[in-house]
Design goal:
mainly alpha, single chain, 2% strand, ABC transporter involved in vitamin B12 uptake, BtuC, globular, two-stranded antiparallel ribbon
């Protein structure tokens, strides 16, 4: 929240001035450059990386991240942060699984046949509960004077505590409709399968983009994040905007949690452990500012594709195969194949993921700094 004089509020009255500038500079292309560089590198390292099968894998693995990152984009745009999205996603999935195995629905182990009304309740209650928690987070943020990361940190513990209490650390099944959304393809063209989850993510991101770019609420989100005092002087009820954005983040977390549970075809407490950090990485990689007022859904989409391509590429990289195919002398190849970092490359993937993410974020930060100078 930057200090502003009353005269500084006048530009905020213009709808166009509340949106990010459309003048493109090099920093705007940093996410695309990072994505192109990753595709080029993995195309050299991984056989058949540039294939329709890889595209399908990226779409399937990136769908949940895209849904959750969309809601988080609203939160970051209004200069707030929500640390609870990962556990809200877990809570929504646990609620769904527990309700699904109740007698009024599918019964124990989810083996029965539930009515349409029962299925509606099973799917609706997680959204209602997470929406309520998101509204509480927003209300406490604007009324307590505490930073949103403190409030949502507490909400994160509340959500995981409720999830543990409900499930008693047991596994639960989920409705078949979630399994279909999480695993089936909307259509197939050869080896390319467009997952239902990716289609849902595309709809969510499209609606969010239209809201941010073509509605008064979207302009108010940018105004609130860009200069909250000026937005207040322009007549924007910034407190309501903050509450609404945190509620949107909670709803998107619930949606992502249910889709992820469907993809895994069950619910357990070890799900969504990295969802928060991955979603934040996607949003920031796309170029949305942590300080509010700059970014958008298009950038978040690029961030999701970059992050997912990086994870898929690392998972497909076979170091032993690369060493065998290298022009090194045979003795060197045999010696290298016995090294611990080669035999335990799976354990090294998170380290490499962090290094590449750090380099990409530093590159974007440097370019953004040059743009502001």
């Amino acid at each position: 929240m930057n200090p502003a004089s009353p005269n500084s509020a006048s530009p905020a009255l213009s709808p166009e001035s509340s949106l990010p500038s459309r003048r493109f500079v090099l920093a705007d292309f940093a996410p695309l450059i990072s994505l192109a560089a990753l595709i080029f590198i993995f195309a050299l390292l991984v056989e058949d990386f540039l294939s329709l099968g890889t595209v399908t894998l990226v779409l399937k693995r990136g769908a949940v991240l895209a849904i959750v990152a969309t809601g988080l984009t609203f939160v970051l745009l209004c200069a707030e942060i929500d640390l609870s999205v990962g556990m809200l996603a877990l809570l929504a999935a646990c609620l769904c699984g527990v309700l699904w195995e109740q007698p009024f629905a599918a019964g124990p182990k989810g083996m029965g046949v539930a009515s349409t009304s029962s299925l509606f309740v099973v799917l609706a209650v997680p959204f209602v509960v997470t929406l309520a928690l998101g509204l509480v987070s927003g209300w406490l943020t604007v009324t307590s004077g505490l930073p949103s990361f403190i409030i949502t940190l507490a909400m994160m513990n509340i959500a995981v505590g409720l999830a543990k209490f409900m499930t008693l650390s047991q596994k639960f099944n989920v409705p078949p409709v979630l399994s279909q959304i999480g695993n089936d393809a909307l259509f197939r063209v050869g080896r390319l399968g467009f997952p239902n989850s990716a289609a849902l993510a595309a709809v969510v991101m499209l609606v969010a983009h239209l809201v941010l770019r073509h509605t008064r609420f979207g302009r108010y989100v940018y105004m609130t994040g860009g200069n909250r005092q000026a937005a207040r002087l322009a007549g924007v009820r910034t407190e309501r905007i903050v509450v609404a954005c945190l509620a949107i983040g909670a709803l998107s977390a619930a949606c992502g949690g249910l889709v992820n549970a469907g993809r895994l075809q069950s619910v357990s407490l070890d799900q969504n452990a990295d969802l928060l950090l991955d979603a934040v990485a996607c949003v920031v990689l796309g170029g949305t500012s942590l300080f509010g007022g700059e970014g958008g859904i298009g950038r978040t989409l690029i961030g999701v594709l970059t992050f997912t391509t990086l994870k898929v590429g690392l998972d497909l990289t076979d170091v032993v195969k690369l060493i065998k195919a290298s022009p090194l002398p045979l003795a060197w190849k045999q010696s290298w194949q016995q090294m611990s970092w080669v035999t335990q490359f799976d354990l090294l993937r998170p380290f490499l993921l962090g290094i590449v993410l750090l380099l990409a974020l530093v590159l974007h930060g440097r370019l953004s700094k040059h743009r502001s100078d």
